[in-house]
User: Fold this.
Amino acid sequence: MKKEKARKPNIVFILVDDLGYADVGFNGSKFFETPNLDALSKKSLVLNNAYMYPTCSPSRTAIFTGKQSFRTGVYTVPVLEKGTDKENIFSRWTVGKEHPIYAEPLAEAGYKSIHLGKWHIVGPNPKEELKMHFPIKQKLTQPDPGVYDWAEVHKLPEVQQYYPKGRGFIKNVGGTYRGDPALEVNGYKSVSGGYWAPFSNPFIEKKPNDNWLTDRLTDDAIEFIGEHKDGPFLINLNFYAVHRPIRARSEELLQKYLTKPVDSVTGQGIAANEKIKEKMAGYASMVESVDDNIGRVVDYLNKNGLRENTLIIVTSDNGQNGNTSSNKLLRDSKGYIYEGGIKVPMLINWPNKVTPRRSDVAVTCLDIFPTLMDVAGIKDYNGILDGNSVTEIFEKDSKLFIERPLFWQINSQWKHGTCSVIRKGNYKLIQFLATGKLELYNLVNDVTESDNIAKKEEEITKKMLAELVQWRKANKVPLPPNSVLEI
Assistant:
């Protein structure tokens, strides 16, 4: 009798928006409550040094394509850019079809995939944008909240090819060009903020029991799992939470966090005035809601005998937003190339395949695509991938991950100037492109990056800079117009 062929593993990839490194209990928060994630982390590989870009667009593009920002031209969220074309290479918005995303080879390998929540790798005017000659002279814009004339155009086949259903997914729930859910009139100032029903998103079909967006996205994820239990399936659950606008999940949760003791170590819950305190408490209620819903997904997998054959990855797209959370243990927040802006929580869970532990090896958003290919047994993907499969460290740390350098190229500015960055071993070197200024930090001895040792440690600086320059040269990395560097 023929041996039954092993079933391909299911994949649940959960990306939370703007969740900071210390916004979860398993990374030390005493203010935010994430009991489901904390319990899952005890059975998972927890990465102490997981990295993204400082903002969501380049992180999500890198996750989806497995490619560095200079290859896709997505350097930041276009509407955030500061300055002129003399200082920036203005960012693209739409990721062209020449850059496949991981759902496409997974679909070819038999995966049934659903995307839920934030998409953000298509622009509001993709047809016009893709005809533009880059670099463009001014940053791209987006429609004002309450303007919906783009919606019908985005449902047409020529634009849908840049949406989930044109990219390997068989269903899209809520993915649009926009980076937050507040599509309705008044946007952030509206009553619902897009989080309370009726949702203003033209890609969310209204249901009678709609209430809270995070719950609805999870409902649809669970429903899809139920329909495709025989697998393999990919659940791409990209919560809009905990991105602004902040809306309290309930009055009960709001009061709980308004009266809860603050976390003086991280600064979480500490506010200058009542208005900010209420915003932080509302944010905490959104974190707890995300945790509740991740617990629902895990419970469903458990109850339906799917856990053993399901890989779960949970992470965030950038560091915490400084307006809603804080972490005094790391420097700065979302938008900055410092650790508070790029270091995120990440756990990988797969019963009997991943050895539960905490690891200090550095991983990056670029590693997700090759990991999913590896897990799905796809050996013939021949596109450019700038990361490495983390299956190599599922059981124990490897030499590759201990020694390899990580690189960032930020060619448009928001919180600070354009820069190139290398992180290797214990060190991170930042080279600001408009001035050539160098900053070197020992991330073990100086976690808050408060002591620039570039001049003190000349040999390390010289060696890391040479590797950074070689990387730029080898990859023909473009530099912004006002760069003082030749390459």
Q: What stands out?
A: The mean pLDDT is 97. Residues 274-303 form the longest helix (30 residues). The chain has 14 helices and 13 strands.
